[in-house]
Amino acid sequence: MTRSIALSFTLCALLSPLCQADQIIREAPDTTAGKGFGALTGMMVGAAGGPIGALVGAAGGFFAGSAVQAGIGKSETAYEVKNAQGEISTVRSPNASFEVGQQVTRQGVRLVASEE
Description:
The chain is of the alpha+beta class. It is built from 3 helices and 5 strands, in the order αβααββββ. Strands 3-2-1-4-5 form a 5-stranded antiparallel sheet, with no helix packed on it. Helix 2 (32-46) runs antiparallel to helix 3 (50-71). The protein starts with a helix and ends with a strand. The relative contact order is 0.19.
């Protein structure tokens, strides 16, 4: 009897977060690809100035790459998601689109629309 109570309590504690859907708060632009490309390019160009030049070039390229990607209108989509505990996090979603207020669940690093 004691084992079944402990097992039931453990299952309820572990499975309850899976039953609660997250909610999309807002859509945000995502320029991660531009930042990465800019940092890599800036590092290679700055390497002519030695290790310090590579670091300075990478930092400059990071910000320039983000600005260029946003400037040409190629920003990807990210969503701010609020979970049941009230924590807000940003999740990239390059392949799926969601509406603000929509209930979603997380499957690994991806968002999936809830079927409720």
